[in-house]
Amino acid sequence: MTTKALIEQIHKKKSFLCIGLDTDMDKIPTYLLSEDDPIFSFNKAIIDATHKYAVAYKPNIAFYEAYGIKGWKSLKKTIEYINHNYPEIFTIADAKRGDIGNTSAMYAKAFFQELAFDSVTVAPYMGKDSVEPFLEFPNKHTIMLALTSNEGAFDFQTLKTNEQELYKTVIEKSKSWKNSDQLMYVVGATKAEYLGEIRKIIPDSFLLVPGVGAQGGRLEEVCKYGMNKDVGLLINSSRAIIYASETSNFAEIAAAKAEVIQGQMAEQLESL
Ligand SMILES: O=c1ccn([C@@H]2O[C@H](COP(=O)(O)O)[C@@H](O)[C@H]2O)c(=O)[nH]1
């Protein structure tokens, strides 16, 4: 999907909500466990109920890998289901990959070709040649970790190297890489106060912002410091939406949660 198409969807749905499909067999309603593919059944119900309020879905790959071959099958069915039924939705494989060049090229093939995601998250620690293979795929997006939502972000990402914080150097350097217009960046909602500085370096890039809801980040604050003229934000919420209820009407309750967030996003869009 092109960035232009993503922006059009955001305005059409008045939403920049990304719903995280962090599907955990220990948390889904127990009656689903007797189904042939409980993870897919859960995802399908959530997607069908919430797609009106969201512009993106983000399966976190760890939740599928944890179940081996069965998990990969559920992941493949989920991405195929979204691409077939809701082709207007932007899809993110939250895989946090990155390795020497020829290995990164295989990761890129896995997520962009075999699984046909629109984007994949990548850890930048191994540098330019570990990220550039992902940028070779037209109309696919590489979402690089910049300043993450967790406490450990302060261990390395905010350390000063050459007079400035490492995350700033990472973002600045990435701008000179081949096809850098296909880059997006992860910035945690819990680090909203840093967004002003980040926007000085990358005013036009899209940011994937996890950490609202269960991690305590605030939507209004993220919008205040992070929104740009094209919106430029995909705000993710996983557990607070998909596990809002454990009852048989879990999908309806997830949709109600998503609708509330979409309403708040619509208000923010009015101020653009
Ligand atoms: O900095 C980061 C990067 C990725 N994540 C991922 O986003 C979701 C957040 O889930 P919630 O349930 O809404 O807290 C999850 O998949 C994380 O692995 C992040 O939280 N922070």
Q: Superfamily at the CATH H level?
A: Aldolase class I
Question: What low-confidence regions span 5 or more consecutive residues with pLDDT below 50?
Answer: none
User: Which band does the percent of strand residues land in?
Assistant: 15-25%
Rg for CA atoms: 18 Å
| Bound molecule types | the ligand O=c1ccn([C@@H]2O[C@H](COP(=O)(O)O)[C@@H](O)[C@H]2O)c(=O)[nH]1
Series of H and E elements = HEHEHHEHEHEHEEHEHEHEHH
The CATH architecture comes to Alpha-Beta Barrel
Q: What order do the strands of the largest sheet run in, or round the barrel if closed?
A: 1-2-3-4-5-8-9-10
Can you count the helices? 12
Average pLDDT: 98
How many domains would you count in the coordinates?
1
Oligomerization: single chain
Fold blueprint:
Blueprint: H1 3-13, E1 17-21, H2 38-50, E2 56-59, H3 62-65, H4 68-85, E3 90-97, H5 101-114, E4 119-122, H6 128-131, E5 141-147, H7 153-156, E6 160-161, E7 164-165, H8 166-174, E8 183-187, H9 195-201, E9 207-209, H10 219-226, E10 233-237, H11 239-242, H12 250-270
Parallel strand pairs: 1-2, 1-10, 2-3, 3-4, 4-5, 5-8, 8-9, 9-10
Antiparallel strand pairs: 6-7
Helix pairs in contact: 2-4, 2-12
Bound molecules: ligand LLZGTKA7.
The site of the ligand O=c1ccn([C@@H]2O[C@H](COP(=O)(O)O)[C@@H](O)[C@H]2O)c(=O)[nH]1 has 19 residues, from strand 10 and helix 11.
